[in-house]
Fold this protein.
Amino acid sequence: MKEKLAVVAVSGGMDSCVTTAIADLSYRLALVHFNYGQRTEARELKAFHDIADYYKAEKRLVIDFSHFTKIGSSSLTDRSIEISKADLDNKSVPTSYVPFRNANILSACTSYAEAIGAAAIFIGAVYEDASGYPDCRPQFYEVFEKMIDIGTKPETKIKIETPIIYLSKSEIVNEGIELGAPLNLTWSCYQCEDEACGVCDSCAFRLRGFQQAGVEDPIPYKVKPKYF
């Protein structure tokens, strides 16, 4: 019987699914999903519920972050900004960056974790993405954990867990397969909800990971370019 409870931020994508599988090894699960006006909001929500069902999550919570559509400045939430085609060598912040999104996610997860007595927050951040997304850097999570300690009740102790942060996408694929994670239930595409486009950054990183791992990606794609 697992004694401790963990809050896991689950977007519905591959990284958060594998992170859930890792959390499930040691913790009871309280899964959290965020609707923030992203183009594939409905498909990501379905993936979240499918993953929560698969792991028989003790708790699940869906939070409305629609303020991100009002803030704008991201191709995920502002349809006047085009979704960029994949550029895996890009080192600048991509148009898909949602300003300070992960801090918003961590703040809400902290509130929930403190309210339900959870001991940890798991998030599927990946350092490989950090060149483009500043809120995926390891030091961001280290500092945020210190802020949690300062800003919560004296008896509250919540650890931020980023178990895949130093893994490459191919290593994440292999870890997911080893743990029996339901990668077939996940969704990563930034712009399509029926078949993944195969050409946005998220699809490209995911496909390259599967291709480097020598494994067939189980979700449907409109096109499957070779990315390595």
Notes: The chain has one domain: 5-189. Residues 101-116 form the longest helix (16 residues).
